[in-house]
């Protein structure tokens, strides 16, 4: 995790990958990403929904920004079929019909 200290009036331009988390460790931060404006207070975080450029600025005299690791997006991964044993096999099925 990387921590940056921003002062009021300085603007930070960052290229973000999808899933990258920005966390406000202290102070207040304003960020804009793809037309969305977000204000973060100390302890709050925001996750980039896609790839793009974010602009970040301290809204207080100074603020600490933590760059967390990329969070993998949640995916529904199909499970492998679980084979159930068939007792008696196909012949038992034929005789039951």
Short structural description:
This protein is mainly beta and 97 residues long. It has one helix at residues 89-96; strands spanning 2-7, 11-16, 20-26, 28-33, 36-41, 45-47, 52-58, 62-70. The protein is 8% helix and 52% strand.
The helix fraction, in percent, is: under 10%
Question: Structural class from helices and strands?
Answer: mainly beta
Count, helices: 1
- The sequence of SSEs as H and E is EEEEEEEEH
CATH topology: Jelly Rolls
Question: Rg to the nearest angstrom?
Answer: 25 Å
Query: How many domain units?
Result: 1
Low-confidence segments:
74-87
Looking across the biggest beta sheet, what order are the strands in?
1-8-3-6
Organism: Jeongeupia chitinilytica
Pfam families: DUF2917 (PF11142)
InterPro entries: DUF2917
Protein name: DUF2917 domain-containing protein
Written overview of the protein:
With 97 residues, the protein is mostly beta strands. The chain has one domain: Sandwich (Jelly Rolls), CATH 2.60.120. It has one helix and eight strands, in the order ββββββββα. It has one helix at 89-96, and strands at residues 2-7, 11-16, 20-26, 28-33, 36-41, 45-47, 52-58, 62-70. The strands form two sheets. Strands 1-8-3-6 form a four-stranded antiparallel beta sheet, with no helix packed on it. The longest helix has 8 residues, at 89-96. The radius of gyration is 25 Å and the shape is globular.
Give descriptors for this structure:
four-stranded antiparallel β-sheet, 97 residues, mainly beta, Jelly Rolls, 8 strands, 8% helix
